[in-house]
């Protein structure tokens, strides 16, 4: 199988590598390029933020929401949005300065050397690439985490606290941090070990093997996330028997959704933002509802939100997203070989010639990721637009539960979904006025106004059809 994949991939990958051969040989100013690109992206994002910022001065809710949103809630949401936008501005500038200094002073080369020193203390030499790579990644992750610490502390304990969302205690914050690091190491270290071993073992033929490994890893995470990882951070309890449970089970049964477990999650332990989601294997799914959603919306509303979630399942959105990500990974990895042996790339990032002559895989891959930032940024914006389309589709699905799928008791689901969305948005103090550029670039979900307009349209189309 792998050989067949390799044969199919080999010709285009080889042709593409020929195009990229200059990367291996030419001494290009890679570092200046990466710094320039990161400032270009940051400047564009600050411009978008400035476009969005002026909407926080509006005195009244958008016309189609005015009837549903009390004026005091609207004013609170504007104040929250303004504070978040100011914070985003500071965060962008701060991260930019940190990154620039890190690149400028050869941060990657320093981390690599420190990694070598660290394993040296443990009695291993720099010939042990796997260990030094793990040490390098640990040091780099620790530094990144430390650099963003002031921002996360401020965001959690000042910004969210001020607007009444923070439920995180100091103890939870520290425990989450430590668990996150432990988890990063427990998953990251074996991942890196296999990742590097594939390169040393498969040589020039690593592309299909690496793809197979990454796909396998993603599938493994589908198993591990709900069973091992999430319980470390949140408590999932089976949803209590009652009207809500009966309704969700009936809905799942009617749509032939393979519901295995129905949970309530204590999202309120950290924040009072509310949500619901599903996950699992094609034949065994879990639905998780946030306790905050149950508290904020009526049973009818929660059911409508779940109907929307089942729309994602019905149209196989998670699978489609995974396929797009696979193609993306293929393109990314297919372009990597030229960078794998690029001595000029490492020299440009201040690595000593002794290291640059035979670039360690992890270093080449890390620098490669910095180089492809512009493409990755565009890809992220593209994925946001795909995601927004999927959201509209799932809303449409919920609206058509009665007319198209004949689910009993699902009349007026669109109206119920609209009301639930408004209730969630108002409780979360979500931004109600949104700049179209800002939204197109950043948002995975359409704005509330856009969704309500679409829902009204789906409902109208439905009624028109009935009259015909
Ligand atoms: Zn959705």
Automatic annotation (TrEMBL):
Regions annotated as coiled coil? none
**Cofactor(s) the protein needs:** Zn(2+)
Among InterPro entries, the record links this protein to:
CAXX_Prtase_1, Peptidase_M48, Peptidase_M48_N
Report whether Protease shows up as a keyword of the record.
Answer: yes
Q: What biological processes does GO assign it?
A: CAAX-box protein processing
Domain of life per record: Eukaryota
Q: Which reaction(s) does its UniProt entry say it catalyses?
A: Hydrolyzes the peptide bond -P2-(S-farnesyl or geranylgeranyl)C-P1'-P2'-P3'-COOH where P1' and P2' are amino acids with aliphatic side chains and P3' is any C-terminal residue
Q: How is the cofactor bound?
A: Binds 1 zinc ion per subunit.
Q: Which residues bind Zn(2+)?
A: 308, 312, 391
For this protein, what is the EC number? 3.4.24.84
* Ranges of residues in domain Peptidase M48: 242-457
Q: Which residues form the CAAX prenyl protease 1 N-terminal domain?
A: 52-235
Record bears the keyword Metal-binding: yes
- GO molecular function terms here? metal ion binding; metalloendopeptidase activity
Tell me what topology the record assigns in the membrane.
Answer: Multi-pass membrane protein
Q: Name one GO cellular component term.
A: endoplasmic reticulum membrane
Q: Which residues cross the membrane?
A: 30-50, 101-122, 134-159, 180-200, 206-225, 330-349, 361-382
Active site per database record: 309, 395 (proton donor)
Q: Where in the cell is it found?
A: Endoplasmic reticulum membrane
Instruction: State the UniProt keywords alphabetically.
Output: Endoplasmic reticulum, Hydrolase, Membrane, Metal-binding, Metalloprotease, Protease, Transmembrane, Transmembrane helix, Zinc
Q: What does this protein do?
A: Proteolytically removes the C-terminal three residues of farnesylated proteins.
Q: Which family does it belong to?
A: Belongs to the peptidase M48A family.
- Specify the protein name: CAAX prenyl protease
**Which organism does this record belong to?**
Serendipita vermifera MAFF 305830
């Amino acid at each position: 199988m792998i050989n067949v994949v390799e044969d199919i991939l080999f010709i285009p990958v080889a042709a593409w590598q020929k195009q990229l051969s200059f990367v291996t040989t030419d001494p290009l100013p890679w570092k200046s390029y990466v710094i320039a690109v990161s400032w270009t992206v940051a400047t564009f994002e600050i411009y978008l933020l400035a476009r969005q910022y002026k909407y926080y001065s509006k005195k009244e809710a958008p016309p189609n929401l005015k009837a549903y949103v009390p004026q005091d809630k609207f004013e609170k949401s504007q104040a929250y949005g303004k504070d978040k936008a100011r914070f985003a501005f500071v965060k962008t500038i701060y991260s930019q300065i940190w990154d620039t200094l890190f690149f400028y002073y050869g941060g990657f080369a320093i981390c690599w050397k420190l990694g070598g020193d660290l394993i040296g203390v443990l009695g291993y030499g720099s010939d042990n690439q796997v260990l030094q790579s793990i040490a390098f990644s640990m040091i780099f992750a620790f530094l990144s985490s430390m650099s963003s610490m002031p921002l996360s502390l401020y965001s959690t304990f000042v910004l969210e606290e001020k607007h009444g969302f923070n439920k995180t205690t100091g103890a939870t914050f520290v425990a989450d941090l430590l668990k996150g690091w432990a988890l990063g190491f427990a998953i990251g270290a074996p991942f890196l070990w296999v990742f590097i071993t594939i390169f040393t073992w498969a040589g020039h033929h690593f592309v299909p093997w690496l793809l197979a490994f990454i796909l396998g890893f993603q599938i493994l995470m589908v198993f591990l996330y709900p069973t091992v990882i999430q319980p470390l951070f949140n408590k999932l309890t089976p949803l209590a028997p009652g009207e809500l449970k009966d309704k969700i089970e009936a809905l799942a049964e009617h749509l032939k959704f393979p519901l295995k477990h129905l949970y309530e999650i204590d999202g309120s332990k950290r924040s009072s933002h509310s949500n619901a989601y599903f996950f699992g294997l094609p034949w065994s799914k879990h639905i998780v509802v946030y306790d905050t959603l149950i508290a904020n919306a009526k049973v009818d509303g929660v059911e409508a939100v779940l109907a929307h979630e089942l729309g994602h399942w019905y149209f196989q959105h998670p699978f489609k997203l995974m396929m797009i990500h696979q193609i993306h990974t293929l393109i990314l990895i297919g372009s990597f070989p030229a960078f794998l042996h690029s001595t000029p790339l490492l020299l440009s990032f201040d690595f000593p010639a002794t290291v640059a002559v035979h670039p360690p895989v992890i270093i080449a891959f890390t620098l490669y990721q910095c180089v492809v930032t512009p493409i990755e940024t565009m890809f992220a914006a593209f994925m946001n637009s795909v995601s927004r389309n999927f959201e509209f589709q799932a809303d449409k699905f919920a609206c058509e539960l009665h007319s198209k799928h004949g689910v009993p008791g699902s009349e007026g689901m669109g109206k119920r979904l609209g009301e639930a969305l408004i209730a969630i948005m108002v409780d979360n103090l979500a931004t109600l006025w949104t700049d179209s550029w800002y939204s197109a670039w950043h948002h995975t979900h359409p704005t509330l106004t856009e969704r309500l307009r679409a829902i009204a349209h789906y409902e109208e189309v439905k009624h028109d059809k009935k009259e015909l």
